[in-house]
Amino acid sequence: MSDGPVTHGAQLSIGEVLGLLLDEFPDVTISKIRFLESQGLIEPERTASGYRKFSDSEVERLRFILREQREHYLPLKVIRSRLAGDTSNDLERPELTPAHGLIEVPSAAAAGHPSARGRGARAVAAVREDASGSWSREDLLSALGVSAAVLQQIRAAGLVAPRMVGGVEIYDDSARAVAAAAARLLELGIDARHLKGFRHSAEREMTLYEQRVVPIMRQRNAGGRGDALDLLSRLERAGSALRDALVAASVKQHRDRA
Predict the structure, then answer these.
(1) Would you give the end-to-end CA distance of the chain in angstroms?
(2) The domain 95-110+117-187 is classified under which CATH number: 1.25.40, 1.10.1660, 2.40.50, 2.60.40?
(3) Statement: 1-94 belongs to CATH 2.60.40.290
(4) Rounded CA gap, 83 and 63, in Å?
C-alpha cells in the first residue's frame, strides 16, 4: 500500500514520521498527528523521556487515515470503525510476529473459547523470548517494588502506556525506567497530579527540537536524515545538561538560604 519509504523494524520519532509523510501529505503537521493520537486512532509507544515512537504499522495506519480524510472526506468516527474492521486492500496489515514485538490479540469473542485461553500466556512467553526488554505487569510491579495502585497513578498521569499482548499488559524497558523514576517521586511525597507536568515539559522540549530537526529532514539529499538524527541527539544531550544545571542552581539557592 505504502508509496513512501518506511524502514522496516524502525521505531520513528514524531518528527521522522512527519518527514516521511510530507511528500504525500504536505499539509500534515505534528499537531495533526498528536490530535489523531488524542482521538485514539493511533497509539505510538513512549520512550523513557516521554517521546512518541512509531512502528511501521503505525506509520501505515497514519497514511490510511490521512488518505481517507483527503480522498473521501470521511469523519474520524467512520475512519475509526473502518480501522477496527477493515478487510479491504486499502489498509495494509503487516504480519504480526514476536520478532517485531507485535502479536495478534484475540478478539473478545475468541478469547472466551477454551482453545484460546492459553494464548495469552504463550504470547507473553514469546515476547519474553524475543524481546528481553519486555515486562509483564506483575514482573514490573515486582521489579519496582510498588503496588498496583502506584502503577495506576503513573499510568493515569500519562507517563507510561503498556501494549496489550494476548490480553496481558506488556511494558518495555523505557516504560520501566519512567515508572521507576516516577515511583521514586511519589515515594518522596510528590503528588501524583504533578507528574503530568514532567511529561508536558518533555513534550514542549521535544517540540522545540523538532523545529530545528524537521526542516533538515525535508531536504532532498542522502545525508539529510542522518544529519537530522545526529542533531537531535546533540540537542537532547544539550537540553539534558541545561535542565540538570538549572535544577542544581535552584537547589543551591535553597541550600544557601538554609
Answers:
(1) 64
(2) 1.10.1660
(3) no
(4) 12
Does position 4 have pLDDT exceeding 80, yes or no? no
Which region holds residue 178: left if phi is over 0, alpha if psi is between -120 and 50, else beta?
alpha
d(CA 53, CA 47): 7
Distance of CA 149 to the CA centre of its chain: 23
**Residue-range domain boundaries for the chain:** 1-94, 95-110+117-187, 194-257
Cell numbers standing for residue 48: 523513557
Interatomic CA distance for residues 213 and 166, integer angstroms: 37
Residue 100, all three cell numbers: 517485531
pTM score, whole prediction: 0.49
Tens of pLDDT, residues 124-175: 343 333 334 577 888 888 888 889 999 999 999 999 988 877 777 888 888 8
pLDDT digits (tens, 9 = 90+) for 18-55: 888 988 888 888 888 888 888 888 999 887 767 888 99
